[in-house]
Amino acid sequence: MKDLGKLSLMLLAGLALGFTSCSDSEDDDTPTPTVKGNANLQGSITANRTLDADTVYTLKGFVYVDNNATLTIEPGTIIKGEKATQGTLLIQRGAKIMAQGTAEKPIVFTSNQAKGSRAPGDWGGVVILGKAKNNQSQNVQVEGGPLAYYGGENDADNSGVFSYVRIEYAGYPLQPNKELNGLTLGSVGSGTKIDHVQVSFGGDDAFEWFGGTVNATHLVAYRNTDDMFDTDFGYSGRVQYALGISDPNMWDVATGGASNGFESDNDGNGSTLTPLTTATFSNVTIVGPGSNLPTGAQFGQGAHLKKGTSLSIRNSIISGYNKGITLDGSVVEGYAQNGGIKIMNTVVAGAGENTAINKASSSTSEFNATTWFNASGNGNSIKALNQLGLATTAPYLPQTGSMVLSGASFAGINGFETTTYIGAFGTTDWTAGWTNWDPQNTDY
């Protein structure tokens, strides 16, 4: 979350009313194509509604699903965020989104700009809000000013299903230091199902959790401008199988900004308020920007653990950042030493010789982060990029004989699938069929 400057946002009100049909081709010499209709989504959705795959929908301004309504989205449906009004979909507390796509028919949220003209931050993104705990209050307002709040006491809260979904060109700075992300999750509870979600070319973070207990699997953060996986306000869920890929030509342009793989806080003040941010990520592959960067590029760390977080990373690959992992601050150092932070069976690859594992430059403690990381019981290692044995293009699957096809351990953690491999993949490509590595040149 960075200060990107003052920007204005025009918000529209009222219910979705517009609908315009497209006419079929009358060319008798060629097959008649399937032509989708068009409809606008605007204002508040206060009763159960289904979005059909035979219609392309446009989000205009803040679109709220409210009044305990359920928004169901059919597989293959396309929803476009309007650039002029920074269209944004917000699922309020008590409401649900039932977005169950398939590998063959993913649900796609994208920009309403034409092919070739789409850009990060064209629209606001998807915001899901729940009643689980966070460490701020039971009524936290979503950043940037929308009339949407999250928080409560029900850690098992159910906000619906979000599965086989792509979010492209979202994430917008509504106010200074107040941005929407590709997928924003505020106090979302463990009754919610989130899996197989790709966030691409976003204008801020790909995924950000503000408190909550929701678990997630099979996430892809692809060429977003800021952090891949950002955790705050006491998020305590589990995430398994996640892939993050940087673009060396895209970064956080804010003054002092830095694009990270993981960024994790307990809160902005670095407090010890509970619930602590204690999420565990396992089987993650982070592919950073590498060392051949343009002048002025602002990349940070593969994992920046700061401001009181107690996040753990297991069975993962953090590659392509000059700074691999940074444990930032005395509270974070303390959690590392007392077992509150566990980084185990994890490889840092391609970092600088003296910067693979770091503590804050301001730290004067005797804590040695490298010694801690390399302790024999942790199963961690520091390698060169060419030692990993990964493919050189997305999704960077391990090749035959790769060192990362073994070495995983799930000792001491529950609720995860057990694998032998570290990183996001073994020999199966779970991104096949539903992801898109070139949305700029896709007709929608």
Quaternary class: single chain
- Cα separation of the termini: 30 Å
How many strands in all?
31
**Major sheet: size, sense and barrel closure?**
27 strands, mixed
Poorly predicted runs of 5 or more residues: 2-32
How many structural domains are formed by the residues? Answer: 1
| Tally of contiguous helical segments | 2
Structural class by SSE content: mainly beta
Helicity range: under 10%
- Nearest-angstrom radius of gyration? 21 Å
Coarse morphology: globular
Estimate what percentage of residues fall within beta strands. Answer: 25-35%
Mean pLDDT: 92
In brief, what are we looking at here?
The chain has helices at residues 330-338, 369-373, and strands spanning 19-20, 37-45, 49-51, 55-65, 70-73, 78-81, 88-91, 96-100, 107-111, 125-129, 140-141, 149-150, 160-168, 173-175, 178-179, 183-186, 193-200, 207-210, 216-222, 229-232, 238-245, 262-264, 280-287, 301-305, 312-314, 317-319, 323-327, 343-344, 347-349, 357-359, 381-383.
